[in-house]
Amino acid sequence: MTAAEVFPDNETVVTALRLACCAPSAHNTQPWRWRVGRSSIRLHADQTRRLTAADPDGRDLVISCGAALHHLVTALAAFGWRSRVHRGPDPADPTLLAEVELTSAPPSRAEVLAASAIIRRRSDRRGYAEWPVEDTPLREMIRAAAELGVLVQVVTGPARARLAELTNLANSLRSNASHDEMAAWSGRHSGSVDGVPSANTPREVRYGDLVTRRFSAPGLASPQGGAGTLLVLGTESDDRESRLRAGEATSAVTLAATASRLVSCPITQSLESPSSRARVRAEVVGNTMVPQMVVRVGRPMAGAGELPRTPRRPVTDVLDFV
């Protein structure tokens, strides 16, 4: 077997990493770093980009990195490389989250379609069409998360109303430091390489019973609509690997939604503080799992138009060849 069959060439690796960096992250902080060796790709957490007010224990940072990890695996599969992911801590390097080893394998049609959703996926913070998401795409999202060891609960009825109440309450109780952090990472101009641009943040913040975040300098017109279908993603435990898997599942769910011509947006307000997360666990999902992420999915509003792509840091800023 030649070296080319053991590990992809640098151009393939860099292209796959560019797609990996299209993953959603908290406030578009992009808190990941990649180190490419002779036989593997390592994913590291960049602690300098942690949101100290909204994410004091780094939970959202790890989830964001998990989304990038799944994007990478998805992109590599479409390029003919099957990934074996080793998750877990390294006592010698606490920033290491995962190591990806590769073997060549012909891509399936489903893998190519999944990768094509990467460049079309957006975090759509606007209102959604009022009708519910059909069962078939919901089953596909649940299946995609389950393959990563993550549970998905479709929240309906009183539980959904309670989740909306807890989200709204979390918005109202945000600290001054959290407001300042939000202002620092949103309202960005078109030349920025991170943060949430004005062009991607709607002026409207209430959709039905759900109040979403109010970002700085919103510049996106949003027609009146609904919140969509709310999904809670959860794990059996709450260690770092569980959080990483929750991020991978967030990527899998949002890419599956995109492939089904749905729009989606992760929302985390109700899960940012330990006390609020405990209430979501007890009052929304009935202690069946540890809630890690809420994703709203739905049909786009008629005439809503395509969102601009949110900025990304150059891959050279987050990549080292070792």
UniProtKB/TrEMBL annotation:
Where on the tree of life does the source sit, at the highest rank? Bacteria
Task: Output the lineage of the source organism.
Answer: Bacteria, Bacillati, Actinomycetota, Actinomycetes, Pseudonocardiales
Give the signal peptide, or none: none
Protein name as it appears in the record: Nitroreductase family protein
Q: Which organism is it from?
A: Actinokineospora diospyrosa
Read off the InterPro entries from this record. Answer: Nitroreductase-like, Nitroreductase/BluB
